[in-house]
Amino acid sequence: MFLGTLYNPYPVSSTLPTISTTTTSTNTGTSCPRNNTFTGPNAVDSPNYPNYYGSSIECEYHLNVASGNLVTLRFLEFYLKSTDYIDLYEGDNDSILLYRLHGTISSNTWFTTQYSNRMFVRFVSTAGFSNVSGWVLFFKAQQYGKFLIFMNLVIIF
């Protein structure tokens, strides 16, 4: 069940089988990670996770998978205050917005690039305090041809 606000000009999310993952924090404190490039499969989390991530910060992450694949990700945890958001972009930069995510999102929702083996992620926290815990995402490679987009739904083969 999706409880947040989703902006998606290119809807390609779907529910895939549940994956068991173990995560360790990629950042500590309320600042962005110095190393913001990750190769999948991997897990990435918000600053200071699972504690409050801080206010007035903007973090950028580069997610990469093997050439010839798409990036697919899901949030294992996703709790943001209402004015904070995460943007997911196709490729290495912020030229093609795929999704804008707010609020709370189910861990059963998957988000996938359309054609690139790279995804650019921007996390924006606005001013003001909140006690929400932030987010953890898991991403991996999705082979081309393993799904079919039909009426804005992804059907997995």
TrEMBL record:
Disulfide bonds join C32-C59. SMART domains: CUB. It comes from the Eukaryota. CDD domains: CUB (cd00041). Pfam families: CUB. Keywords: Disulfide bond, Repeat. Residues 32-142 form the CUB domain. Signal peptide: none annotated. PANTHER family: OVOCHYMASE-RELATED. This is CUB domain-containing protein.
